Automatic annotation (TrEMBL):
Record has Hydrolase as a keyword: yes
PANTHER family listed in its UniProt record: PROTEIN ABHD11
SUPFAM superfamilies: alpha/beta-Hydrolases
Any one Gene Ontology molecular-function term assigned to this protein's record: hydrolase activity
Species of provenance: Flavobacterium chungangensis
Span of domain AB hydrolase-1: 11-109
Keywords: Hydrolase
Protein name: Alpha/beta fold hydrolase
């Protein structure tokens, strides 16, 4: 069963993080959704955060996990939000289990194929040798040689934890990602359609959703609304949480 944090009362609202993220990334926004009247479920997807590790890692497997989670928690009608990789999970979930999903929100990712672009990040993570018992500073120093951007590095290093006294580790399953890396860019199958209200939000400075992608998105999600957060990149919910919250709650309460 997936690890989750459940807070609040009201309509169930399931939130899914992106690649190498975890439920903690959404803690602040989740609290605001609770205040807005939702029962919020922030998940750790398989091989991420505190959820189980598995050699199998695909969108189909992650969707099945979320379906089992909904069954276990008696969630028969939900709204769902996913960012990046989590957005792809949300798209596949909504198109294959439309009987469960009322409204879908996708943050800065489209249903199309994406070429692999995490090589440097993974090279930095793989360069860490935990057998020599590095300190947090040691790990950051190693990763910084591959990931110069401070914000990206801090996001990655949130995954560090003390496995036992004196022994750090990453929470995510790096081996599974190394072995299944092409899985993350996989497109949504051509014949999958979700007809309920769908909101796509993109960062104005992000290249993940281009204007020329819109026809392809609308083919899968005909009841589409697109919003852009200006001056925000791929981590739009962290860069402008106020606007992100306002756009999503307005859509959910329509």
């Amino acid at each position: 069963m997936l690890y989750s944090k459940i807070e609040g009362e009201g309509k169930p609202f399931v939130i899914m993080h992106g690649f190498l993220g975890m439920s903690d990334n959404w803690k602040t926004l989740a609290g605001q959704y609770v205040e807005a009247g939702f029962q919020v479920h922030i998940l750790d997807l398989r091989n991420h955060g505190r959820s189980f590790h598995s050699s199998e890692w695909s969108y189909e497997a992650m969707v099945q996990d979320v379906y089992e989670y909904c069954k276990e928690n008696n969630l028969t009608r939900i709204d769902i939000l996913g960012h990046s990789m989590g957005g792809k999970v949300a798209m596949l979930f909504a198109t294959t289990h439309p009987e469960i999903v009322d409204k879908l929100i996708v943050a800065d990712i489209g249903p199309r194929f994406y070429k692999q672009h995490h090589q440097e990040i993974l090279a930095g993570l793989n360069a860490v040798d935990f057998s020599v018992k590095p300190s947090r500073n040691d790990v950051e120093e190693i990763v910084s040689q591959y990931v110069p951007d401070f914000g990206t590095r801090q996001f990655l290093l949130k995954n560090l934890y003390w496995k036992e006294p004196g022994q750090l580790a990453f929470r995510f399953n790096l081996e599974a990602f190394n072995n299944n890396l092409d899985a993350i860019g996989k497109p949504l199958a051509d014949d999958l359609v979700f007809n309920n209200p769908t909101l796509f939000i993109r960062g104005g400075n992000s290249g993940y959703i281009q204007d020329e992608d819109l026809d392809g998105i609308r083919k899968h999600f005909p009841n589409l609304k697109l919003e852009t957060i200006p001056n925000a990149g791929h981590w739009l919910h962290a860069e402008n949480p106020k606007m992100f919250f306002e756009l999503t709650t307005e859509f959910l309460k329509e």
